[in-house]
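Consider this:
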Amino acid sequence: MDRQGAIWRILAAGIVLCAAAQTATAAENRCGWLHNPTPGNWWLVDRDASWTLREQGPEDGPDGMDLIPDISERDYRKTNGNYGYACACMTVETNSGQQRITKILSVRQLPLSKCDRDKSLPSE
């Protein structure tokens, strides 16, 4: 292989690696108010944004929706029949530009008092 061909191959490999690094997403730990106000609608409000998990309609939401426990079995506030909100920490992948959670890796429901005391969260 000639020197110029080797240089082009190295440059091409570098471009591919850079592109792959930019599309890779890292898991984030986000804690805040986990809302389920009506059937099929879910979002998480943390100190940074209101993150959409799922909206009523044809979409099923991100992978990992099945990891969300029945929030009504623990400490939660009822706002609409059996629907309401809880305090939770979630390990997720996000699309920050669209403020969407794209994958749920874990969910831990916390006492409401934890979010009530967190001054970085909006009051509910």
About this structure: The beta strands are 28-36, 42-45, 50-54, 76-80, 83-95, 100-110. The longest helix spans residues 3-23.
